[in-house]
Write a structure and sequence with these properties.
about 65% helix; flat; two-stranded antiparallel ribbon; about 10% strand; about 110 residues
């Protein structure tokens, strides 16, 4: 690891990439082959939405992986760190952009009240 700044960039980039894969609507097309959306009406009339993992074998495994932010976080961190070590000139701009977006989302979520 180069320095504390690089570590912080990797932390926030991993956070943002994980959220992008697991939760953001912009990447829903990546999850659609592996997840079905189920909407259930509760007794009080409210609705609850949850995902249902599709398929078997590898398809099911990928669906499980990308539905779990802890699991996806391990793989995104591994991917980003490997890029940082092996091809830093290519990955540092991506890591930096993801980190800035990650920091901005933390600020938005925790400090800005609508």
């Amino acid at each position: 690891m180069g320095n504390w700044l690089d570590l912080c960039l990797l932390v926030f980039a991993s956070f943002r990439l994980t959220r992008l894969i697991v939760y953001d609507s912009i990447t829903e097309f990546l999850r659609t082959p592996f997840h079905g959306i189920v909407e259930e009406t509760l007794e009080d009339g409210s609705t609850e939405t949850y995902i249902e993992i599709k398929g078997e074998g590898l398809r099911y495994w990928i669906g499980e992986l990308i539905s779990c932010h802890w699991c996806t976080g391990i793989w995104t961190t591994t991917f980003l760190y490997a890029g940082y070590v092996l091809v830093p000139r290519l990955t540092m701009p991506v890591i930096t952009v993801l980190a800035i977006a990650g920091i901005a989302s933390v600020i938005q979520h925790h400090f800005i009240k609508d």
